[in-house]
Amino acid sequence: MSQQGQLDSGGSTPTIVETLTGNTGGAVGPDGANNINVVGDGTTANVAGNPGTNTLTISASGIVAIEFTEDSGTAVPAGGNVNVFGDATQGSVTSGAGDTITITNSDATEVQKGVIETATNAEAIAGALSDKAIVPSNLPPVFASPFPIGSVAPNTGAFTLLNVDNVQIDGNTISTTDTNGNLILDPDGSGTVNIAYATENAVAVYGASGALGETSLGTDGQVIIGATGGAPDFATLTSTDGSITYTTGANSLDLSANVVSTEWRVITDATDDLEAAVGFIANRAAGVTFTLPATCTVGDIIRVTTIDAGGWTIAQNASQTIKLGANDTTTGAGGSLASTANGDTVEMVCTVTNTNFLVLSSMGNITVV
């Protein structure tokens, strides 16, 4: 600003301005041309002079902020400076370079607040990422695509106990927790319940402490037979005396009783030899003498009766004897049984191979010699 002549202060007597004083720096006097320059810094303020109107116009360069309003509170420049700081505990920091201030937000971690990207449904289901967050909208597809429990262990280790309604899984034990609760395996539709170690077509049996085992594989016609103190198993039925015949097939067993019908012979000769499984009828007025078979198997049955008053006599071979009640015949050829009236009858069984016979039943008064 040039200072020439007098500066009218509005009074009746002109006042000469000798100096100008700013906020700082002290009083400034005119130069040799009696001029004081009033200029802006060219950055924040400009001064424009108009000699025609004797006017100086001071204006800001662009827009200069003199106050900053935040979400909370208001910041006012101090010494022409406003500090812009981040909050490291909240995961934000600032940096300045040239005419640029950069605000950076840290990634969130288990120990640091910050920003984090949300997972897609596919990423949430996979469960393999540690730098993305699962949000509520991820949960329906995650639960619709369940992963095996225990495939992702909790912080303290693998799952050791699982309770679902009234069913508990603890170690190798699956049990019910409600009083007298049933444990039901119910596959859908044509599904089956499979036991990995089971042998196809074997029959399940329980062992000690309820351990589930299985029998050996049965063959055609075999049946499961118990054993005292032992496990039941498949076995083939047999008939020791051959009285039962078994015909086996796939899932079938036919039993036939071998009924031995006694053959009856009417004897009119004076003598005849007895045979096992044969009945003899004496029909001779002078009587019939029958002789025991020289060879006979334990269990063989012999029957003798008479339809004539002559009756019958049963003679013996060497070393043979017959027991009738408390009486025994004389051993050998000297012993015998004899009828005393028409209709006398005896039924005998061999008790010792070839030698001993026992009267099972008799009718009449039998003579023992």
Structural class: mainly beta
CATH first level of the domain at 263-368: Mainly Beta
Strand order of the largest sheet: 20-22-24-29-30-26-27
What oligomeric state best describes the polypeptide chains here? single chain
β-strand number: 31
Q: Which architecture of the domain at 263-368 would the CATH scheme give at its second level? A: Sandwich
What name goes with the CATH superfamily of the domain at 263-368?
gp9
In helices, the fraction of residues equals under 10%
Largest sheet: 7 strands, mixed
Q: What is the residue-mean pLDDT, rounded to a whole number?
A: 83
Distance between the termini: 180 Å
CATH topology of the domain at 263-368: Jelly Rolls
Count of helical segments?
2
Strand content: 35-45%
**Poorly predicted spans:** 1-7
Q: What does the overall shape look like?
A: rod-shaped
- From the alpha carbons, calculate the radius of gyration and give it in angstroms: 64 Å
Structural description of this entry:
It is a single chain. The protein has 369 residues and is mainly beta. The chain has a domain of 106 residues: Jelly Rolls (Sandwich), CATH 2.60.120. The chain is built from two helices and 31 strands. Strands 20-22-24-29-30-26-27 form a seven-stranded mixed beta sheet, with no helix packed on it. Helix 1 links the parallel strand 9 and strand 10. 7% of the residues are buried. The N terminus is likely disordered.
